User: Fold this.
Amino acid sequence: MDSAANAVPRASGSDRREFVADLVLSAAGIVGLGGLATRFLQYLYPVVPPEQVIEVAAGRRDAVPANGGIVVNLGVGHVALVDAGGELRAFSAVCTHLGCIVKAEPTDHHALYCACHGGMFDRQGEVVGGPPPRPLPRYPVEVRDGQVFVKVIVRPPVLTA
Assistant:
């Protein structure tokens, strides 16, 4: 009977090891799920920098023919400069249909033409033919000392670590 009374369960070294192992694995799991949740939330709510308006030189005023136009490639994108009866206008040269670059081909019906799918835009940037769904975005333009300056809206890239 003495042997039955002495059979009290005692903590052994293996029970402590299992507890510590479970504790470490649980902590690693929580940290892993936290990292996964952080990446998921960054995907759902990305950091989007604000738009900035910058002024870029687009060439000489005398390079734009009277009642004509040119397309210039600036460091921030393509810009179409159109002369409309002596008034200089600047538009994005990216077609609103599928993003092709428009060409300056002035006729009686249109000033800018997109060769990809036949999109046509007048001297106001409005769609006059083809599939483009929206007019071309217009940019403020200024001429100083014979030089054309265009104010373009850009969104700087996000630098990730």
User: Anything to note?
Assistant: Residues 52-154 form a domain with the Rieske Iron-sulfur Protein fold (CATH 2.102.10.10). Helices lie at 2-5, 13-44. The two ends are 71 Å apart (CA to CA).
